[in-house]
Amino acid sequence: MCGDGANDAPALRQAQMGIAVSTATDVAKSAAGIVLTEAGLGGIVAAVKEGRTTFQRILTYTLNSVLKKIVQVLLLAIGLVMTGHAVLTPMLMVIVMITGDFLAMSLTTDRVRPSPMPNSWQVGKITMAGTVLGGCFLAFCIAVLAVGKFEMGFGIETLRTLSVVAIVYGSQATIYGLRARRRLWGLRPTIWLVASSVADILIISTLAVRGIAMAPLPVSVLLCEFAAAIVFGLILDGVKIPVFARLGVS
Predict the structure, then answer these.
(1) Per-position pLDDT tens, the chain of length 250
(2) Which end of the chain is more exposed for a tag (fewer CB within 10 A), N or C?
(3) CA–CA distance, 23 with 199 (Å, rounded to integer)
(4) How many angstroms separate the CA atoms of 62 and 178, rounded?
């Protein structure tokens, strides 16, 4: 509802979103949810666009949160069955959380494409989409752990390093895959998102190579794991399109 007079105040108050124009009376402005500060109705279009942009950022953050919770919990359980030990120590979990927070905070500055249609929170469908994509991320981490244990014969300490690096590298792939509902190359990321990714990769790679707070890994293994994460990101980008289309997440 858009209005300017005192008689519009009840409708502005009852509307899902009441908008008072710049020349509206004080009563109308106090009843409205949005007050335009410039003449004309262009501010309404700008407000709708900004709202849909904000929704897309929150949606990306929500999907990312659901996905990571699934991976961290199930990887601990499956890793315990595979190795007989916890594949993530408390210290490694702290490292995962710190690196993940860098990336999650940078999402607030990322470029997003507003949806062409109104958005609504469909928690069940969003949770289902996060669960399906989280299953893909979990499969990637388990595959890396399985290769390290059964093909390379690593001990538990090295497997822990392999697992934490897989989570951090894989998180980069999931972020770039989830940040848009279309193909990942359709929208250029901001410098802050790229800088956060580079910082995360440098931090975990340095810790892994030098054996700080974890067992050391050869550089060749890190490079193979990084290449696998890139391939995983491309696969995830292809999986998300039908998943989002099927569940109506846009």
Answers:
(1) 888 888 889 999 999 889 998 888 989 999 998 898 888 888 888 888 888 888 888 888 888 888 888 888 899 899 999 888 989 898 998 888 888 888 888 888 888 888 878 878 888 888 899 899 999 999 999 999 999 999 898 999 999 999 999 999 999 999 888 888 777 777 888 899 899 999 999 999 999 999 999 999 999 999 999 999 999 999 998 899 899 888 888 7
(2) C
(3) 49
(4) 10
Contact present, 193 and 110 (Cβ < 8 Å): yes
Provide the token pair at 80: 């315990």
> What whole-number distance in Å separates Cα of residue 185 and Cα of residue 116?
19
Residue among 231, 92, 248 nearest 173 (CA): 231
Task: Quote the pTM value.
Answer: 0.84
In a domain, 40, yes or no: no
**How many CA atoms lie less than 13 Å away from 154 in the CB half-sphere?**
23
Where are the strands (E) in 114-224, listed by range?
A: none
Calculate the alpha carbon distances from 193 to 117, 196, 204 in Å: 26, 5, 17
Amino acid present at 191: I
Q: Is residue 120 part of a domain?
A: yes
- Residues 11 and 59 both lie in one domain: no
Whole-angstrom distance, CA of residue 92 vs CA of residue 22: 54
Non-local CB neighbours of 221 within 8 Å, separated by 6+ positions = 152, 162
Domain co-membership, 28 together with 79: no
